[in-house]
Amino acid sequence: MTTRTIAVVSAGISVPSSTRLLADRLAAATVSALRERGVDTKVDVIELRDHGHELVDNVLTGFPRPELQAALKAATDADGLIAVTPTFSASYNGLFKMFFDVLESDSLAGKPTLIAATGGTGRHSLALEHAVRPLFAFLRAMVVPTSVFSAPEDWGAGDRTAQSLDQRIARAAGELAEIVAARPAQKAADPFLEPTPFEQLLNGS
Q1: Where would I find the NADPH-dependent FMN reductase-like domain in this sequence (predicted)?
Q2: Looking at the predicted structure, is the pLDDT value of residue 192 above 50?
Q3: What is the CATH number of the domain that holds 56?
């Protein structure tokens, strides 16, 4: 089988985290959907709470530490992206925003992306459409049609809301897998292939 890489960005704060739980379920469903299409998958999980101080330093200095640089590279080099945030004040949280703020310009352009969020109540579900999806539209990522929101009531065992969450996870994962499987594997960019011209460096541009 061919192999693709899926980067999973989880911006959960607590441990254990419902955001990470949702991220893991989306990743597992995507791996399964890709396997059905004859594609093997490597999953790279990026837990943003582990990079909180590094993200603040990057925002202040403009330079990522090696650990954060590796996480940024994993996201930009992946064939597909799953991005999951908790909902704070009807939007994504600060860690989530900072991570995507410090990415290089256009590094997610055309990237197949699945967006998801968690919240204390289903009333926050519209945050995906009025906050998270516009963020990735600005980054020019290719966001799949189905977004996935989960509230505490969605995690019941075997009840109707839990079944609905399972269905949404499967549908979104299938959409992401369909796009990723149809594309050639992403190749990591080599910065030495197209070095910045010396004249441009002198001009500071």
Answers
A1: 6-155
A2: no
A3: 3.40.50.360
